[in-house]
Specification:
globular, about 100 residues, about 5% strand, mainly alpha
Length: about 100
């Protein structure tokens, strides 16, 4: 895991978090559907690869994926927002530069 990988994952999830907050503010029951699902899965997959042994990441890994969405209940944006926040907290913080 390089600093660049962590920074890229953190930036991607921060953008996703900002967008999800706006969606949830308008409609807390809004579903994530269509082409957003594989994009979401790729963004979360980036963190899964970096932090595969983290229990929070492992627990969410089987819940939010293209396969599980295709087989089951719709995915609410508010649920995804919670997962994104947890994934962000699992990533190491960017080192402070002096």
């Amino acid at each position: 895991m390089t600093d660049g990988d962590i920074w890229t994952a953190r930036k991607t999830l921060t953008t996703l978090q900002t967008d999800l907050r706006a969606i949830v503010a308008r409609d807390p029951e809004q579903e994530v559907r269509g082409m957003a699902i594989p994009v979401l899965d790729a963004a979360l997959g980036m963190v899964r690869e970096l932090l595969g042994d983290n229990p929070v990441v492992t627990a969410a890994g089987g819940v939010i994926s293209v396969q599980t969405i295709a087989e089951g209940e719709p995915l609410r944006a508010s649920d995804v927002l919670l997962v994104v926040g947890m994934f962000l907290s699992a990533l190491p913080a960017r080192p402070q530069t002096a």
